Structure formats: C-alpha cells, structure tokens
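Sample log: Phytochelatin synthase.
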Amino acid sequence: MSLIGAYDAMTDQVLILEVDQEWNVPYWTSVPTLLAAMVKPTSAKHGPLEGQTSGFVRIGKAQH
C-alpha cells in the first residue's frame, strides 16, 4: 500500500509516497493514471492475488 502524499490541483496530479523507498522513490502521476492503475487486475506473477484490483483507504478525523 502506498500513500498519496499530496495533490496538485493546477496539474491534477498526486504525489505517490512509495512504502519501499529502497527500490522506489516518491513520484508524481496524473489522477487518470492513478485511477486506471487502481482498476487494473493484478497479473499472474502475484500468485493468489491474480485478478484482484486495488482500492483506497481514506483516513480522516472522526465525526461526532
């Protein structure tokens, strides 16, 4: 799971904060590219996750 660290409304891009920064550095990508990646099924090389799609978790302040 990687975090979206920022959103740039001027360019409609998000900053992806990779969890494994030994191999991947943070990078900017467009919102349409992010959404396309989230609905693309996982390949067979990921074993039991094959065919699964991503999603998102929204974290926010609890409302009382």
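Observation: The mean pLDDT is 89.
Observation: The radius of gyration is 14 Å.
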